[in-house]
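Box 3.1 A note on notation
Throughout this textbook, protein chains are presented in two layers. The first layer is the amino acid sequence; the second is a token string describing backbone geometry. Keep the layers aligned when reading.
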Amino acid sequence: MHLNTQIMKNCFYFLLFMLLCIQSFSQSTEEILKQGNNKIQTSDFKGAIEEYSKIINIDKANYNAYIMRAEAFKKLNMFKDALADYNKALEIKPSDGNTYFLKGLLYYNFEKYKEAIYNFTLALQNDSKISKSYYYRGLSYKEIENFKLSEVDLKTYINQFPSDTSALFNLGEIYDDNEEYVMAIEAFNKVLAIDSSNFNAYFFRASDYDIIEKYDEAIKDYTKAIQFKPDFIDAYFNRAYIYDELKKYELAIIDYSKVIELAPHSADALYNRGLDKVQTGMKSEGCADFKRASELGEKAAKTYFKNNCKDCLIK
């Protein structure tokens, strides 16, 4: 009886010891994980990797450590190491949709779009609530120019998050790629209804108005884009081009001059301004622009200068 009592005591003390060890072990890994996370917050990614590696050396099945170390590897553009950690995390949790999503993002960031699509699909199969998978799968389809499937995914995402201007903007670009310019304008309208200072949306909508020959609307939108981004070179250039189409050469000259001010080596702007100056009776000034444009490699300017500027005295 005494022997049995002693054995029971020994068992009790052993179990107590094991419980304390497990508790201590759990606390230590959690503390190390917090230290790693803090280092990620301060962009000390190498330091974070060291902390997460400590956990993995203690506990080979620590899912969180693999996930966080993969994120740190990704920040350092260490693709293979990040991928290896995501795969290890999936060995621990084979049906975790979030891990497939993160793995898809890794492929997307490194421009491996087909692999990204595959993993975003697995993410949705394992967890349909990961809505961002629709968004990034849509962007991945867009990158490989599968615009129809891209449209489907972005619309699915937008149905859940109708105020996401990035998704709406990308949908507008897809319509542009499909030459569905009226639909693109509608998408950019929605962007601007949410964010009235989005100069890129004004620019793209202006381009669409230009294509469907609604020049007044295009000019207004290019002007809005310039209002919010005063150094928007392409907006000045495109607005000038429309002024050319409308034979408003003086206004075009002003815009081309602004382009040249912002980008002095813009041969196209110099050549076009030269043409407008000739149209408005300023041939000598126009020939000066042709000469500068030809020196920058603009072949049309060189030909025009050679054939039409012999009577101009240009040093």
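The longest helix spans residues 2-41. The chain has a mean pLDDT of 90.
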